[in-house]
Write a structure and sequence with these properties.
heterodimer, A: 350 residues, mainly alpha, ABC transporter involved in vitamin B12 uptake, BtuC, 2 strands, B: 561 residues, Rossmann fold, six-stranded mixed sheet, 20 helices
C-alpha cells in the first residue's frame, strides 16, 4: 500500500519500478539462459563420460556443423517472429547448392565470390516468390511455403537429373572455407556468429525489426498502428530466401558432394532449432541469438550421441522431446508471467 | 427537437459528479467564429446491402468534449472507423482545418494527428509499454537506431503528465483494461493528437478508474484537443461533455449543447420511432415453466441471474452489447462454464458445460454469429438443415440422402426459404435466408426451448418480419423462446416479458403491457437507479421509478425460488 503511494508520487525513480523491471527482464532472459544451461549440462555430462567430446577437433567439427543450421535459423527467426513460417528453406538450400557450385565445372576459374552471389540470387528469387504470394496473395505462409518446398525441390531434381557435383570439380580454396580456423575456432563460425549478432541487433534496435515483433504479437493492432504489414512480410521472406541461398553454397563447401537430395528435411530441423531457442511459434517474441543457440544444442546432441556410441536413431527422438519441452516451458512461462504481471498490475495500477 | 428541457441534467451531474464539473452552463462551448478542427459532412458507408451510416455528420472543435450517443447499430462505430482511416466513406467529405482530406489507412489518420482509442484496446501483448506507445515512431539516435533510453524517458514523461505509475519497461501482457487504456491514451498524447476519439472507454472500468480517465480527458480538453467521447452511460456524458450528437439507424439526429438537455431527451432522440406491437390475439397464456435459471453466476461476466421461461412464452433479454446477455445464453446451453447457480429444464438439473446434454434436454440454440457458429458455410443447404437431426435420418449408421433431402425440403417450404438448389453451399444464400437455415436446423429437433441470440441482425426488413412471425408461431405451438436482442422494436414487438441486463446483472423486468423503449434504455444504461434516486426531487421520472419497483419484485421472486 505504502509502496503504491510513494510510487504514485514519484513514478520516475520509484524503487518498486526498478524491482519490477528486473523481474520482467529476468523472466525475459529465462528463455535464452535456460537453453544455454541445457547446452552446458549436456556438454558437461557428455565430456565427463567421454573426454574426447571436448577436444579441439570435435569442437571444431561441431561448430562447423552448426554454421549452416544457425544461419538458416536467423532467416527463419525473422519469419517466425512475424507469425509466419518458411518451410521452403531446405529446398532453396538444395537448389542453390547444386546450381551455384555447378558453375565451377562449367566455368573453371570462376571467382568464388561470384559463386556466392549466384547462390544468394537463387535464394532471393525463391524468397521473393514466397513473399509476394504471402504478402499480396494473402495466402497463409504455411501453405505457400509447403507448396514451394515441393516446387523448388522438383525444379532441383529436374536440373540435377542423375548428376551430382563432386569434390574433384571444386577448387581447393572453396573446399577450405569451412576448414580455415583461427586458434582452433573455425573462421566461418566467427563470421556466421557476427552475421547472427548483426541480425539480432537489427531485430532489436531498428523500427522495421520491432515491427516484425509487433505483427507477430497482434496483427490487427499492427495494422491499426500503421505498420506496413505487407512490405515487412515480403522483406522477411526475401531475407530468409537469400540466407538459405547463401547457406546452400556453404553447405556445398562443407559436404562437397551435391546431388538432388541436398538439404532435404532441413526446414524441420531449422524450425525445431528456432523454437527450442525460445522463439514463440506464433510470433511476437524470441531472439536470433536464442535460435542460433537452439541450432547449436541440436547439433551438440547429435554429436554427443555419436561420441558416446549411442545409436544416431536416438537423435531425432531427443530432438523431438526437446521441442516438446521447449513448447511446454514457453507455455508455462507465459502463463506464470501473465499471472505475475497481472498481480503487479492490480497492486500498483489502482 | 424536444423542447421540454428541465433541471434533471443537473441532477445527473451532481449524482455522479466527482470534483469540479467544468460543463454546461458556464458557457464553455466553442466560440461561434472558431472553425472546427475536424468536420465530417454527409458521410455514408454501406457494407453490402446494409447501410451502416447515412448522412453522418459531426463537427469537432478544439477544446471541447463532444459526446456521440445512439443505440447499438446506430452507426457510431462505423463513423469512428471513418475518422480512423479504417473505412473510407462511400460519399461525403472529411475536412481537417477546413481542408478536405482522404484517409486511406490508419497511418494517414495518425499523420493527421487523429488518435482513436478503441473499445477493445489494440496493444501488442509481447512488447513493452514504451514500445506500444511509440511503435513505428520510436525516437532514433545515430544510424536510425532506436534510442531506448530516450523512448523510456519520453514514456515516463507521458505517464507523469497522466499522473499514473506505469512502468514503461514491462510488457503489456497482463495489464488491466484500465491500464491498457492508459497506454492507448499515452499513445494519443505522444502523437500530439488534435482529435482524440474514445469509443466506449469506460465500458470496462471501475468508478475510480473512470474518475482517473475523466481527469485525463479534462486535461486534454485544457490542452485544446478535441475529444469525441462515445458512451452508453448518459450520466458520464452529462458529466464530461459539452455538446452531443445523437445518431439513430445510421442517421444524424441532432447536435446540440448538452446544457438544457435531459437524459430523457437523449433517450427519446436515440430511440425515436413507433413500432406496432404484436396483436393481443397472438399472445396465448403461458404454460408450465420450461427453463428455470437460478442465481447463475460466472465470475466477472454475469452475476446472480435468475429467470424463467414458460412454454408458449417469448422472453426477450435486452441490454447493451457487452452486458453479458450472450454469455448467459452460452452458459445455459453449456458452451461456457459457470461458477455458481443452477439451470433446470422442466425441473431437472442440467449438466454444466455440456451442449450435448442441453440438446438432449430439448434446448435449441441459434447463436449470435451465424457464419462462424451457426452454419457450416461450405456445406449444402440440405446438409446444414439436417445437421442437428442426423440421428433421425440415419439407418445402420449411414445418413440416407433421400431422407435428408425430404427433411430439408419440408423445412424449406415451411420457412419460405429462398434458394437455388438444396445442394447449393449455404454461403450463396442471403443473410436472412442463412438465418432461416439455422432456425430450421434447430426446429427440426422439435425443441422445448429455443434460445435465439440476435435473430435478425443484418437481415433485410422483409425477412426480419418473417423471422418474427416464425418465432411468434413457435410460441403459439408451445415452444418456450428466449430471445436476446439489441433491437428495441423487436423486443417490444414480440416479447411477452422483457428482462433487461446491465453490466452482468438483471436490472429490470417488464411485461409487454407496461414496457416502452425509454424504460428499457433507462434500465440498460443505468438511468434507472439514478433517475429513481432523483425522482423525488424532480418529479419527472415516475416511470423509471415504477420500473425500479418491478425490478426489485423480480429479484425477490427469483430468490424466493
Amino acid at each position: 500500500m505504502s509502496t503504491a503511494l510513494t510510487e504514485r508520487q514519484n513514478p520516475s525513480s520509484a524503487p518498486a519500478g526498478t524491482i519490477s523491471r528486473k523481474l520482467t527482464e529476468r523472466v525475459f532472459r529465462i528463455r535464452e539462459s535456460g537453453i544455454v544451461a541445457v547446452l552446458l549440462v549436456f556438454v558437461a555430462v557428455t565430456a565427463s563420460i567421454q573426454p574426447r567430446f571436448i577436444d579441439q577437433a570435435n569442437i571444431q567439427f561441431l561448430l562447423s556443423n552448426t554454421t549452416v543450421y544457425a544461419l538458416l535459423a536467423l532467416g527463419e527467426t525473422m519469419v517466425v517472429i512475424s507469425r509466419n513460417v518458411d518451410l521452403s528453406v531446405g529446398s532453396v538450400l538444395g537448389l542453390s547448392a547444386y546450381v551455384s557450385t555447378n558453375l565451377f565445372g562449367h566455368h573453371p576459374g570462376i571467382p568464388i565470390p561470384v559463386v556466392f552471389l549466384a547462390g544468394l540470387g537463387i535464394g532471393l528469387a525463391c524468397g521473393i516468390g514466397n513473399g509476394l504470394m504471402v504478402a499480396i496473395g494473402r495466402v497463409p505462409s504455411l501453405v505457400v511455403t509447403l507448396a514451394t518446398l515441393y516446387i523448388i525441390r522438383g525444379i532441383d531434381i529436374l536440373i540435377v537429373g542423375g548428376n551430382e557435383v563432386v569434390a574433384q570439380t571444386l577448387p581447393n580454396s572453396f573446399i577450405d572455407i569451412p576448414r580455415a580456423n583461427v586458434l582452433g575456432v573455425p573462421y566461418l563460425a566467427i563470421v556466421i556468429a557476427a552475421v547472427i549478432g548483426a541480425g539480432a541487433y537489427y531485430l532489436r534496435s531498428f523500427r522495421s525489426g520491432r515491427e516484425l515483433y509487433a505483427m507477430g504479437s497482434n496483427p490487427e493492432a499492427a495494422r491499426l498502428a500503421g505498420v506496413p504489414v505487407g512490405k515487412r512480410i515480403f522483406t522477411s521472406f526475401a531475407i530468409s530466401g537469400g540466407i538459405a541461398g547463401l547457406a546452400g553454397v556453404l553447405w556445398a563447401a562443407q559436404y562437397q558432394t551435391i546431388d538432388s537430395t541436398a538439404g532435404t528435411g532441413y526446414e524441420l530441423t531449422v524450425i525445431s532449432a528456432v523454437v527450442v531457442g525460445g522463439v514463440a511459434i506464433f510470433g511476437g517474441s524470441g531472439s536470433a541469438v536464442g535460435a542460433a543457440v537452439g541450432a547449436l544444442l541440436l547439433s551438440t546432441i547429435a554429436s554427443a550421441l555419436n561420441v558416446l556410441g549411442i545409436s544416431p536413431f536416438w537423435d531425432q527422438a531427443i530432438a523431438g522431446f526437446l521441442l516438446l519441452v521447449a513448447i511446454t516451458l514457453d507455455r508455462v512461462i507465459s502463463l506464470k508471467l501473465t499471472a505475475a504481471l497481472r498481480q503487479r498490475s492490480s497492486g500498483v495500477g489502482t | 427537437m424536444q423542447a421540454s428541457g428541465n433541471a434533471s441534467a443537473g441532477d445527473f451531474r451532481s449524482a455522479a459528479g466527482t470534483g469540479p464539473v467544468p460543463t454546461g452552463a458556464s458557457g464553455t462551448g466553442p466560440a461561434p467564429d472558431a472553425a472546427p478542427v475536424l468536420s465530417l459532412r454527409d458521410a455514408s458507408k454501406a457494407f453490402g446491402a446494409v447501410q451502416a451510416v447515412v448522412h453522418g455528420s459531426i463537427d469537432l472543435y478544439a477544446g471541447e468534449v463532444h459526446a456521440l450517443v445512439g443505440e447499438n447499430g446506430a452507426g457510431k462505430s462505423t463513423l469512428v472507423k471513418m475518422l480512423a482511416g479504417v473505412h473510407q466513406p462511400d460519399s461525403g467529405s472529411l475536412l481537417i482545418d477546413g481542408r478536405p482530406v482522404l484517409l486511406y489507412g490508419p497511418a494517414d489518420a495518425r499523420d493527421a494527428r487523429i488518435a482513436v482509442i478503441y473499445q477493445e484496446p489494440t496493444l501488442f501483448p509481447d512488447l513493452t509499454v514504451a514500445e506500444n506507445i511509440f511503435m513505428g515512431r520510436q525516437p532514433l539516435s545515430t544510424a536510425r537506431r532506436i534510442d531506448r533510453r530516450l523512448m523510456r524517458a519520453e514514456a515516463l514523461a507521458l505517464f507523469s503528465r497522466l499522473a499514473v505509475p506505469l512502468d514503461p519497461g514491462r510488457i503489456c501482457r497482463g495489464l488491466s483494461i484500465a491500464d491498457q487504456q492508459i497506454v492507448e491514451i499515452a499513445k494519443a498524447l505522444s502523437l500530439d493528437a488534435r482529435v482524440i476519439v474514445m469509443d466506449e472507454p469506460t465500458a470496462a472500468l471501475s468508478a475510480t478508474e473512470v474518475a482517473r480517465l475523466f481527469d485525463v480527458v479534462r486535461a486534454l480538453r485544457g490542452a485544446r484537443a478535441a475529444v469525441l467521447f462515445i458512451s452508453h452511460r448518459l450520466e458520464e456524458v452529462f458529466e464530461i461533455c459539452q455538446r452531443v450528437t445523437v445518431m439513430r439507424d445510421g442517421h444524424h439526429v441532432f447536435t446540440r449543447e448538452l446544457a438544457g438537455l435531459t437524459a430523457d431527451d437523449l433517450v427519446r432522440a436515440m430511440v425515436g420511432r413507433e413500432m406496432v406491437k404484436r396483436a393481443a390475439g397472438e399472445r396465448g397464456t403461458p404454460g408450465e415453466p420450461v427453463l428455470r435459471v437460478e442465481r447463475l453466476t460466472r465470475e466477472g461476466v454475469f452475476t446472480d441471474i435468475s429467470l424463467e421461461v414458460r412454454a408458449g412464452e417469448i422472453v426477450a433479454l435486452a441490454g447493451l452489447v457487452g452486458s453479458g446477455r450472450s454469455e448467459v445464453a452460452r452458459a445455459i446451453f453449456g458452451i461456457d462454464r459457470y461458477d455458481a447457480g443452477t439451470v433446470l429444464m422442466r425441473g431437472k438439473g442440467l449438466h454444466r458445460a455440456s451442449p450435448t446434454a442441453a440438446m438432449a434436454a430439448g434446448i435449441g440454440f441459434v447463436p449470435e454469429d451465424r457464419r462462424q457458429q451457426g452454419l457450416v458455410m461450405d456445406m449444402s443447404v440440405q446438409q446444414n438443415v439436417a445437421l442437428a437431426s442426423l440421428g433421425r435420418l440415419r439407418r445402420a449408421g449411414l445418413i440416407r440422402a433421400a431422407a435428408e433431402r425430404a427433411f430439408a425440403d419440408d423445412w424449406a417450404v415451411r420457412l419460405r426459404l429462398k434458394y437455388g438448389k438444396l445442394t447449393d453451399p449455404v454461403y450463396r444464400l442471403s443473410g436472412g435466408n442463412q438465418q432461416k437455415v439455422v432456425l430450421a436446423k434447430w426446429l427440426g429437433r422439435k425443441p422445448l426451448l429455443l434460445i435465439v441470440d440476435e435473430p435478425t441482425r443484418g437481415i433485410d426488413i422483409a425477412t426480419k418480419a418473417e423471422v418474427h412471425q416464425l418465432l411468434v408461431e413457435l410460441a403459439r405451438d408451445g415452444v418456450a423462446v428466449l430471445m436476446i436482442s439489441s433491437e428495441l422494436p423487436e423486443v417490444l414487438h414480440i416479447g411477452d416479458r422483457i428482462l433487461v441486463m446491465r453490466e452482468g446483472r438483471l436490472m429490470a423486468e417488464f411485461s409487454h403491457a407496461e414496457v416502452s423503449e425509454e424504460k428499457i434504455m433507462a434500465a440498460a444504461t443505468g438511468q434507472l437507479t439514478a433517475a429513481g434516486a432523483t425522482s423525488a426531487a424532480t418529479g419527472a421520472t415516475s416511470t423509471a421509478t415504477g420500473a425500479t419497483n418491478t425490478a426489485t419484485g423480480a429479484t425477490n421472486t427469483g430468490q424466493a425460488q
